[in-house]
């Protein structure tokens, strides 16, 4: 069974409505329809400490989330855009993942080798391509593999207040992009499970 984990990096804790959560849920629903078992975690609901260690101690909840990342075949990082950048929770997740950048399996491969990375971005300002590029580079440095079209995003008109969650329906372009992204990621995860990267 292929498994996916979505880390939703909205700054809003549950149960506050979140456009980032909505897009992540739509992506996970697409993956579910492709036979992928999924779990979603909202980072703002957990005490994830700043730093680049596997465990920052004193109640840090990252070690439990790290276990979920390592158990998943697909990792979705979903983030809003703030001032043209990924949300601070998304950056924090990448920093915490960085603790494992030198960790390898028994054959010398980074631990995320064979795992597929995906990105979701929402906002009411320009910057979806810049934000996804930032996150893509981080995921790739850490050893994740990106399928073609590894991002689904929605950005409203710049300097206006419309949120993705306030739309009456999902735009066709977002729906079709989300479907294709899920299709490609699920396929790639299964290919990598059957044919892992060679040892180093």
TrEMBL record:
InterPro entries: Flavoprotein-like_sf, FMN_Rdtase-like_dom. Signal peptide: none annotated. Residues 11-150 form the NADPH-dependent FMN reductase-like domain. It comes from the Bacteria. This is NAD(P)H-dependent oxidoreductase. It comes from Streptomyces drozdowiczii.
């Amino acid at each position: 069974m292929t498994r996916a984990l979505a880390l939703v990096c909205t700054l809003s804790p549950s149960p506050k409505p979140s456009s980032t959560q909505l897009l992540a849920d739509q992506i996970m629903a697409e993956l579910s329809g492709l036979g992928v078992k999924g779990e979603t975690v909202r980072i703002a609901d957990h005490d994830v400490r700043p730093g680049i260690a596997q465990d920052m101690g004193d109640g840090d909840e990252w070690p439990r989330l790290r276990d979920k990342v390592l158990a998943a075949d697909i990792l979705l990082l979903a983030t809003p855009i703030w001032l043209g950048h990924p949300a601070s929770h998304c950056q924090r997740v990448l920093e915490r993942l960085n603790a494992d950048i030198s960790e390898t399996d028994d054959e010398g491969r980074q631990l995320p080798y064979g795992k597929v990375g995906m990105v979701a971005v929402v906002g009411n300002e320009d910057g979806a391509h810049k934000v996804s590029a930032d996150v893509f580079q981080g995921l790739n440095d850490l050893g994740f593999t990106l399928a073609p079209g590894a991002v689904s995003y929605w950005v409203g008109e710049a300097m206006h207040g419309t949120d993705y969650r306030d739309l009456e329906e999902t735009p066709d372009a977002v729906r079709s992009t989300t479907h294709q992204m899920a299709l490609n990621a699920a396929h790639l995860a299964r290919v990598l499970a059957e044919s892992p990267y060679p040892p180093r």
